[in-house]
């Protein structure tokens, strides 16, 4: 059983999930209850709906290590802060399996030799991220962001393999 208890701070991300699973009218009624100042708790039993070959809930988180992208990143950072403690508990107890994904794009072939592709990409333009400062003449480059994402991903895989996942899966 998954229990979602949300405050107004978490409602945006959670209502998207709920509305997709239960329908818009149910999501709207939850939204109204929260707007009216009520604490909303939703209990969902998904055991028969989702595959569970090993008894764990599998979840994914799409992000990148460049957290300077405005309101969307601010919201994501707040979600991670709020969810980290719960994620640690459920991961350590073996209830979940977490998989992070880092958002990248590729550089079109026509631009592979450009300054932008060379500073934002690795592996001949296959994996790219934006310049964190949006200034190619100072600070870190997008390729530094991609490399940081690779380091985090490799560390998480190693920690999961040896069974000492101290971060609860949230990076």
From TrEMBL:
<dbReference type="GO" id="GO:0016020">
    <property type="term" value="C:membrane"/>
</dbReference>
<dbReference type="InterPro" id="IPR056858">
    <property type="entry name" value="VSR_TRX"/>
</dbReference>
<dbReference type="Pfam" id="PF25011">
    <property type="entry name" value="VSR_TRX"/>
</dbReference>
<feature type="domain" description="Vacuolar sorting receptor thioredoxin-like">
    <location>
        <begin position="57"/>
        <end position="156"/>
    </location>
</feature>
<keyword id="KW-0472">Membrane</keyword>
<protein>
    <recommendedName>
        <fullName>Vacuolar sorting receptor thioredoxin-like domain-containing protein</fullName>
    </recommendedName>
</protein>
<keyword id="KW-0732">Signal</keyword>
<keyword id="KW-0677">Repeat</keyword>
<dbReference type="GO" id="GO:0012505">
    <property type="term" value="C:endomembrane system"/>
</dbReference>
<keyword id="KW-0812">Transmembrane</keyword>
<keyword id="KW-1133">Transmembrane helix</keyword>
<keyword id="KW-0325">Glycoprotein</keyword>
């Amino acid at each position: 059983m998954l229990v979602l208890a949300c405050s107004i701070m978490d409602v945006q991300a959670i209502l998207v999930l709920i509305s997709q699973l239960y329908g818009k009218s149910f999501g709207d009624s939850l939204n109204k209850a929260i707007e009216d100042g009520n604490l909303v708790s939703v209990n969902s039993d998904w055991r028969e709906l989702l595959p569970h070959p090993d008894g764990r809930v599998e979840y994914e988180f799409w992000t990148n290590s460049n957290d300077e992208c405005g309101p969307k990143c601010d919201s994501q950072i707040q979600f991670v802060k709020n969810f980290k403690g719960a994620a640690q508990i459920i991961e350590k107890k073996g209830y979940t399996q977490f998989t992070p994904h880092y958002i990248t794009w590729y550089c079109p072939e026509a631009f592979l030799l450009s300054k932008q592709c060379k500073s934002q990409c690795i592996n001949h333009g296959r994996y790219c991220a934006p310049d964190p400062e949006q200034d190619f003449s100072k600070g870190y480059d997008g390729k530094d962001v991609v490399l940081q994402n690779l380091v985090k991903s490799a560390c998480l895989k190693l920690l999961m393999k040896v069974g000492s996942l101290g971060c609860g899966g949230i990076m």
